[in-house]
Amino acid sequence: MIKMIRNFLYFLAASFLVLGTVSCSEKIDTGTDISGQWHLTDTGGLIEDQNMAIDVYISFDSGNFSLYQKVGEDLLRYWYYDGTYSVSGDNVLTGRYTDGTRLGGARGLGYSVSLSGDELTLTEVASGEVSVYRRAEIPSDVIDNAVPPVRSGDRPAPVL
To answer: How far is residue 25's CA from residue 141's CA, in Å, rounded to a whole number?
Structure first.
């Protein structure tokens, strides 16, 4: 009986060792890498339907984002926002602005991410609104002349 218990314990130990090795060797999927600088090229008709002029640049780098946004004909300078982000294994972009407001539309549920070459498509999870970006360097005059960081609630929720 003791020999049978000892063999069973050896079997359990070997099983845990094998299972531990398998799970340690699995790659943790952290989602699509969207690092880089991007320029908004299409809002899926949303902005055009509202007859609103908009220009947006965004930079994603090491879990931090910087967003430069100009909305409306009368706004001469870009508003600057920043915060942190992550892209999950199921390719959903979430995060927070530095003032604590959740990134991801009115409900803060995030954006579904699709990356194809130099084109980044963000689809708001809650509403389905689409924003398309093209990889582009943010012009230095946009960065240099942007209004310093403000609360994300000071203006309508940024289009991402």
So the answer is: 47
